[in-house]
Specification:
Blueprint (H helix, E strand, L loop, with lengths): L4 H28 L3 E6 L3 E7 L7 E7 L4 E8 L3 E2 L4 E2 L7 E8 L8 E7 L34 H6 L22 H29 L1
Antiparallel strand pairs: 1-2, 2-5, 2-6, 3-4, 3-7, 7-8
């Protein structure tokens, strides 16, 4: 029995169409059942993007710090969920472990539990304070030395004694006159007297001659 060539061509076209349709169905159904959880952690925040979950089931997501508080309390979502504003991590001086828990409502095999490490931000690293100056052991210059308990005997002995008045000094201060002044005055008086006597004698003789 010979099958017409047109029949072979028709059967081949039908098989090809079936393969293409099957592949298209698989491709179209793949993203719907992908259940893709995408999230990122930095030193200060957490971003979250959950896509291709079942819109007919109730899904839940929780983000927390291990040993700390919840960054995102348990929240229900449908097909998609994303953080419009990044979740802020508390300030920390050591690494933090952040946990993501996603529970798929359509099948538990799509549920996810994952952890990531948040490093320390450079601004939060404590810096060791360096003393600007080395403390000095010398006393401050403004301090006044304490006075000595005992007065210095050397200073008392070295002080000059007050000078005693001299008993041989003259009572009166010299005025510039010599001590011979009275003698000279007496001699002058004597000369005057002698002159007066001579003048008197001469007059007497003249009167006697006349």
């Amino acid at each position: 029995m010979t099958i017409p060539r047109r029949s072979w061509r028709g059967a081949g076209a039908f098989a090809a169409a079936a393969v293409v349709g099957l592949a298209g169905g698989v491709l179209s159904a793949g993203p719907a059942a992908a259940h893709t959880p995408t999230w990122a952690v930095t030193c200060s925040e957490v971003t979250l993007n959950l896509t291709a979950y079942s819109a007919d089931a109730t899904n839940e997501v929780t983000v927390s710090v291990v040993g700390g508080d919840d960054l995102l309390a348990t929240t229900q979502f449908g097909r998609d969920f994303s953080t419009k504003t990044p979740l802020q991590l508390p300030k920390h001086d050591k690494e933090l472990t952040v946990r993501l828990v996603v529970k798929a409502g359509d099948n538990d095999k799509y549920s996810v539990e994952d952890t990531k490490t948040a490093p320390v931000c450079e601004d939060d690293t404590p810096s060791e304070a360096t003393p600007s100056e080395t403390p000095s052991t010398k006393p401050p210059a403004s301090e006044t030395p304490e006075p000595s308990a005992t007065p210095s005997e050397t200073a008392t002995e070295a002080a000059p004694a007050p000078a005693e008045p001299s008993t041989s000094a003259p009572d009166l201060a010299e005025t510039g006159s010599s001590s011979a002044t009275p003698v000279i005055g007496g001699a002058a008086v004597a000369v005057l007297l002698a002159g007066g006597g001579i003048l008197w004698s001469v007059r007497k003789r003249r009167s006697a001659q006349h």
